[in-house]
Known about the structure:
The protein is an alpha/beta fold. It has helices at 48-67, 70-86, 88-99, 103-124, 160-173, 188-199, 214-223, 236-246, 271-283, 300-316, 335-350, 382-385, 401-409, 424-433, 466-471; strands at residues 14-16, 19-21, 28-32, 39-44, 132-133, 139-147, 150-154, 177-181, 207-209, 227-233, 252-256, 262-265, 295-299, 354-357, 372-375, 392-398, 413-414, 416-420, 438-441, 456-457, 460-461, 474-482. Helix 8 (236-246) links the parallel strand 10 (227-233) and strand 11.
Amino acid sequence: MAIVEAPKQFPTRLFIAGEFVDAADKRTYDSLNPATEDVIAPIACAGKADLEAAVAAARKSQPEWAALPPARRSSLIWKIGDEIMKRRHEFAALEAMDSGKPYKECHDIDVPMAADHFKYFAGVLRSLQGDTIPVNDNLFVYTLREPLGIVAGITPWNFPLLMAARKVAPAIAAGNAVILKPANPTPLTALLLAECIQAAKLPPGVVAVLPGKGSEVGQLIVEHPESAAISFTGSTSVGVKMVRDAAPSLKKLTMELGGKSPNVVFADADIETAVKGAQAAIFYNKGEVCTAGSRLFVEEKVHDEVVEKLAARAAKMKGSNPLDDECRYGPQNNKQQFDTTLKYIEAGKKEGARLVAGGARMGDKGYFVAPTVFADVKPEMTIAREEIFGPVLAVQKFSGFEELVEKANASEYGLAAGVWTRDVSKAHKYAKAVKAGAVWVNCYNWYDSAVPYGGYKASGYGREMGLQGLLAMTQSKSVWVQL
Length: 483
Ligand code: NAD
């Protein structure tokens, strides 16, 4: 066991016009460590006046930013990626302390991936170009790709740094200014990112970071007449409200919402690999993953074997301090999520699902919940239908391809899907039939800055990452020249 040292000093104030400042009304709120329930630090809490200051700075700096030669914009954004990697330990330790994610995961996955988002978009922005369109010999017609103006990024608490990078990188790459509102429970790494942006010397005002309440500053951003677009990641219920609130100002929206993803094990799969994959698919980041493989469908012939092996693996998982570099399983991110997860576990028991692992909190300090597996789950049970966003797996049995597809698609969500089989043709047929924005075959939860990501159905619309993510931050203008 080796507890890593968390930074003693880190930014806790709002980032507006290139400076860290108190909230205009001096309000703060406490950010908590979910492993100990202790206060980490008071954080400045943004309100209306702070938002107006951030909008004014963005309005002033965005034209200058958009007018920079792409090569120059690219090199400044690349530097942000370098700054993140220079401070990899600080990011990983703050994230572990603030979110409950294991330090090692943050260090090995989240931080390098966040840096890569900046480097990917720094590179690909130089390919942003228009078309020439043949119309007739007397006209020269071409298109320009232009930024939207001021874009807002509103993020959840489960991958705080990664989500912040996913919002900021493509938006600034396309020449926009960004106002980022991180989730209330996890502001620390978004504010440290602001230090990297400061160090990279972007024009002040191009990026603002405003921690604060969703129902206050979040809602004000959504309703603000000068924000041209909202890139949101969060729950479907908040997303639906946001679509309504943004309608009067006709904002462009990208909605990355909830999920209840089906993960399938066919009898011909490599069972050991599939079991390990199913375990990681649901328990990675303590189930607080929008794409979590929370509905597991197992073919009848191997059902009992898979359930037994999964239950044994789940029972061996122990929670520990996320700052311990040997920690592989942390606490739920916050008290509300902890209560929600336990409430769903009770619903599973009450509605008659068979509990084969976990089923209760772990220890008596911190928001730890034991990795939980329910078998004999019926499609109509609450745990089979609703997004739990915690470490609770609902296993169902199937016996044929048609039945499987029908069951897998019987969800309001459509974010992701997994399938484990040695039969290539079955894998591709399933990938085509399942209604989801991402399908993993014999693997789960792979991401890359270059691969577009987003949901079907109530999991949202629009795509982030990849070229599609960059284009989403632009608008097209057609120019007609009479020759
Ligand atoms: P949430 O919807 O409660 O909050 C998300 C963000 O929206 C926070 O910053 C919050 O402060 C803000 N917000 C809340 N009310 C608002 C309002 N009225 N106006 C403007 N902003 C408002 O979600 P959460 O609890 O932080 O995160 C968990 C949810 O996020 C889960 O449903 C999960 O599936 C989803 N999620 C989706 C993806 C994806 O890529 N599809 C990724 C991660 C998480």
